[in-house]
UniProtKB/TrEMBL annotation:
It is a multi-pass membrane protein. Residues 1-404 form the Major facilitator superfamily (MFS) profile domain. InterPro entries: MFS, MFS_dom, MFS_trans_sf, MFS_Transporters, Sugar_transporter_CS. The keyword Transcription does not apply. It comes from Arthrobacter wenxiniae. PANTHER family: INTEGRAL MEMBRANE TRANSPORT PROTEIN, RESISTANCE PROTEIN MDTM, PUTATIVE-RELATED-RELATED. This is MFS transporter.
Length: 409
């Protein structure tokens, strides 16, 4: 157990998660524009149904991914996730109505729940407790740099060749490569978790780390102050991401920005988010999780305020950078905090429950942002979500126990 001892397999999983992120990134620039310019949806709430569908499907699958990976092993769950993704590009390319796009995102959400959740758990298995923040930083950096690079590439392709099919062929290539690597190169990691469990102590388990699924759910969601604080912050964080995914391209297009400039803005946020995690994950190992999470939520709130009040490419570019920085402070740190508290015997299930809440934020964000944008306009919707983000950070400051790499509670 350890990063150095498992470096080759760890870096392979980093590459696999970059492909997982790229599969998601194929939509970031294209679909919000496809809704209005090709399929002629006039209201924001119906146009955001694909994010609602994606969030609900991914959130639910996250929960089952943890349970299934504990029962059957990590690799079978990862491979299954890639197989499920195979029809997604075809549905997006040939879908004649918005219902097809929504259906594609249900399938994509299920796939992402299985693949991304499993790469998280597998890296936790490999590195052990002392480098968990670094591991999560590398994992999430790879995923969101994949999102960013693909958002930028699809923006360029769409500007030169149209919204369909060109940008979406990139996603098809990612799925083929990810499936091949997962089948032929990735190795099972569940035995590493069993080794760690044999030498682990926890405040929330008996001598064998045995808790039922219901007990793990209530601990992660409500009872444990650290775990529940992390879960609500994760939900609000992804609420922000759902907002940015669904409404920012529309806001920028309404201001007269070209598709390639919209693609730049759509890419900068996840690029800074992704690259920043290379630093913030390791920082959380050294200095603890809590205050990085609090600070990150407050930085995101400021960035959303800038987007709501600002106009023009320059201010929006600065806000996108700031939003990415705040998210980078939070994202790997939240996952590492879950790994700190959860016993290895039920850590995969606790991660799945956290990711259930976190990715439920996509669905909440789609509904909230759509309703507010239709009623009051996009800037008001963005400002309201910014206020909610600040409140989430304050809640973490008040409720979460300070953490280090040995223990989060």
């Amino acid at each position: 157990m350890g990063l150095r001892q498992n470096l080759a397999q760890f870096m392979l999983l980093v590459a696999v998660n970059a492909l997982v992120g790229g599969t998601l990134g194929q939509e970031r620039t294209v679909l919000p524009l496809l809704a209005g310019q090709v399929l002629h949806l006039d209201l924001y709430t119906p146009a955001l149904t694909y994010i609602l569908a994606f969030g609900l499907a991914k959130a639910g699958t996250n929960y089952f991914a943890g349970t299934l990976s504990d029962r059957y092993g990590r690799k079978p769950v990862l491979v299954t996730g890639w197989i499920i993704a195979l029809p997604v590009p075809l549905l997006l390319i040939f879908g004649p109505s918005w219902g097809w796009i929504v259906a594609a995102n249900v399938v994509l959400g299920i796939s992402q729940g299985l693949t991304w959740s499993t790469t998280v758990v597998m890296k936790m298995d490999l590195v052990g407790p002392s480098r968990r923040g670094l591991a999560m930083g590398l994992n999430e950096a790879a995923g969101y740099l994949g999102v960013a690079a693909t958002a930028l590439a699809t923006g360029y392709i769409a500007a030169n060749y149209g919204l369909r099919p060109g940008p979406l062929l990139l996603g098809a290539a990612y799925i083929a490569v990810g499936l091949g690597l997962s089948v032929f190169a990735v190795k099972e990691t569940r035995d590493h978790a069993r080794l760690e469990a044999a030498n682990h102590t926890s405040a929330h388990a008996d001598a064998h780390g045995e808790l039922g699924n219901r007990e793990i759910f209530t601990l992660t969601s409500f009872r444990d102050k650290s775990l529940s604080s992390v879960s609500q912050a994760g939900m609000v964080n992804n609420l922000n991401d759902g907002l940015s995914w669904g409404l920012f391209p529309v806001l920028f297009a309404a201001a007269g920005l070209s598709i390639d400039r919209i693609g730049i803005l759509a890419a900068v946020y996840p690029a800074v988010w992704g690259a920043g995690q290379l630093v913030t994950g390791a920082l959380s190992d050294k200095y603890g999780r809590k205050w990085l999470i609090v600070g990150g939520m407050l930085v995101q709130a400021v960035a959303l305020g800038m987007i709501a009040l600002g106009t023009g490419f320059g201010i929006w570019l600065a806000a996108a950078i700031l939003l990415g920085l705040g998210t980078a402070m939070v994202y790997p740190t939240l996952l590492a905090a879950i790994g700190d508290v959860a016993h290895p015997a039920w850590r995969a299930r606790s991660v799945g429950i956290y990711r259930l809440w976190r990715d439920g934020g996509f669905a909440v964000g789609a509904l909230l942002a759509g309703i507010l944008a239709d009623a009051f306009g996009i800037p008001t919707a963005v400002a309201a979500v910014g206020a909610l983000t600040a409140l989430s950070g304050i809640l973490v400051a008040v409720r979460m126990r300070a953490t280090d790499h040995q223990r989060a509670g």
